[in-house]
């Protein structure tokens, strides 16, 4: 069996069939990610990490994300998949859960207001 060379965790964690391609160029968005050049441990928590260490590591990861040209694509990937662990697109897993809840609530409100408007227009 052919063995492929080891890839960084960020790339290996993104299955190619689920990775959206960028519209402005031929390659996938993650090929330009700044985190490809950084230590994967910065973006994913070690087991039993103390809270102060986790907060510091997450802030460092967010600083890397802040200078990344594909931060928006990364964030959207993490929200759509959804990625349960790590810092993606400048958001922690907890921050992504909040963003997803807001997105679902907003979509439900839009759907409800659209249905109400449709019923009012028909009546």
TrEMBL record:
Statement: the UniProt record of this protein carries the keyword DNA damage: no
Binding positions for [4Fe-4S] cluster per the UniProt entry: 35, 65, 68, 74
Keyword Cytoplasm: yes
Stretch list, region Disordered: 1-28
Subcellular localization(s) per the UniProt record: Cytoplasm
Alphabetically ordered keywords of this record: 4Fe-4S, Cytoplasm, Disulfide bond, DNA-binding, Iron, Iron-sulfur, Metal-binding, Transcription, Transcription regulation
The family this protein is said to belong to: Belongs to the WhiB family.
Chief location of this protein within or outside the cell: cytoplasm
Record protein name field: Transcriptional regulator WhiB
Source organism phylogeny: Bacteria, Bacillati, Actinomycetota, Actinomycetes, Kitasatosporales
Pfam families on file: Whib
